[in-house]
Amino acid sequence: MTSDFLAGLGLSEAERGRIQDLGDSLRVTLLAPITYRHSKLEGERTLTELSLVKTLKGKHLKAMDQAGSGGIAQSLALVGALAGVPAQAMDELDARDMEVVLAVVEPFLPKPRRTGMS
């Protein structure tokens, strides 16, 4: 990513260093790996990074709606949908990692439409 974009996110230099632009996605290296079990039939999986698509689609935004009305639940659902990771894995996301991931995703979210008279 360009340093201008990263500088505008309000992240520290160390946090910006954990972000890599892969063209159509962003890779964020996690400080605290996530270990989860995708299903009862599978073994544990460990994630050391999240690859987040840059293009938000309806399915990503629907995941937020399905998470309920809580802001944290909606944020975790969005990150999980963008990374292709199940919701139960996102429950294990460290708060420090969540802060970086949400800062990276925020510029790609649709802006709220203005209502009322201008």
Automatic annotation (TrEMBL):
It holds the Pfam family Phage_TAC_7. This is Phage tail assembly protein. It comes from Ectopseudomonas mendocina.
